[in-house]
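Students often ask what a holo structure prediction actually looks like on paper. The answer is less mysterious than it sounds. You provide the chain, you provide the ligand, and the output is a string of discrete structure tokens encoding the 3D arrangement of the protein together with pyridoxal-5'-phosphate.
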Amino acid sequence: MNDRGTQLGWSPEEPTARGVANAVSRAIREGTLQPGEKLPPIRTVAATLKLSPTTVSAGWSLLARSGSIQTNGRRGTTVAEFRQGSGRYRRAMDQRGLFTQDLSTGVPDARLLPDLGPAMQTLTTAATPGGYLDEPEVPELIEVLRQDWPYRAEEMIITDGALDALEMVTRARIRFGDRVVVEHPSFPLLIDQLETAGAEIVGAPVDGQGMQPGPLAEALRTPATAVWLQPRAHNPTGASMTPERAGELAGIISGSGALAVEDDSAGAVASSPSVSLGQWIPEQTVHVRSFSKSHGPDLRLAAMSGPSSIMGDISARRQLGQGWSSRLLQRILLALLTGEAPRQQVADARDEYQRRRQAVVSELAAHGIEVGRPDGINIWVPVMDESAAIVRLASQGIGVTPGAPFSVLPDKSGHIRVTVGAASDSHAELAAMIASAARAGGWTGGR
Ligand SMILES: Cc1ncc(COP(=O)(O)O)c(C=O)c1O
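The corresponding structure tokens follow.
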């Protein structure tokens, strides 16, 4: 474009986001920019090239999505060493092996999922025309979902699971370098998605009722684009928000202009009631409910609500690709949500998860290990030494997940996540093994 670009070592041929992205990609390919090399701040690049910061930021987004560059909080933006996010999820699940009892999975017990047979029989060819021009959502399903949705949402769409929904929100609203406040700890895949989009992740700690208001208010002193929240059965801690906490967080986010993005991944297997900041700030809330834990991960469905402006952008973009989530699957979900037998099976599963969870939690308390009052299928156990705890449990045939990939802020104590929802019996023995693993590596017990 001009020789101002030579100060950077690369120069766009056209003054557009794509021009910026192409020039940086070329510089990486040719070795002018090296893996790990730090790029100057967006404002500096914009001033040097006499472009707007928005154009440079959009160019950075294109590069981040292609895996060419990555952002890492205060360390800034660097040329990528490897291609996708930081691979937290891979690290978390890497430890999986052949265990007698694998409690590392974070997935529901297949034996507690509702029977699909009768729901499949409700399908007829007439009910599923499945044309490209049909409504993307089955209207009766939306109607049923609205009946127990936690707030009056402007629009609702059906997606291929919660992660698909969150990925679409990220693409629609998060630009490279945007600050996004997330819970500490948080589910690694959520962090991977945001990091891949080039977001600057800001952690705010969770207590027994969800994200803490003080740290959130502090984080929002500097403008942020969005706040990522898990309203119920937070993965990994199991915390569920009370309505009071939700109201408090809504009050803080309200004035900041940030978007609250809620991932209700446990859905109907959570024992606590559905809750959303949308009750207070519907125009700033996107709420996602997954049916993976309650109705099966391979049904691959979630519902997402939000203001028309955001849902409209997402649907328009989706038209360019997949277009809609299979209406055949939507009809199966409708039958599962309305049939008496599947409704009972899901309610029984919720009670059974509660029984399993409480059995392990109270046994752990008897061993002096407190994990709060978790909801859902996971518990988050403080341990002296993560590796020692994992190795000890593995030697006893039990698989658990290391805590480090869930950490957004430094974790002083170390943790393991245990999917107690998969443990149908022998809870006292399991708790005793977890308790001694928690002390492995030097903890002498008590405080
Ligand atoms: C917090 C969180 N979000 C999303 C998901 C995945 O949801 P889905 O299967 O609907 O994509 C999980 C799965 O464990 C999860 O724990």
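Residues 443-447 have pLDDT under 50 and may be disordered.
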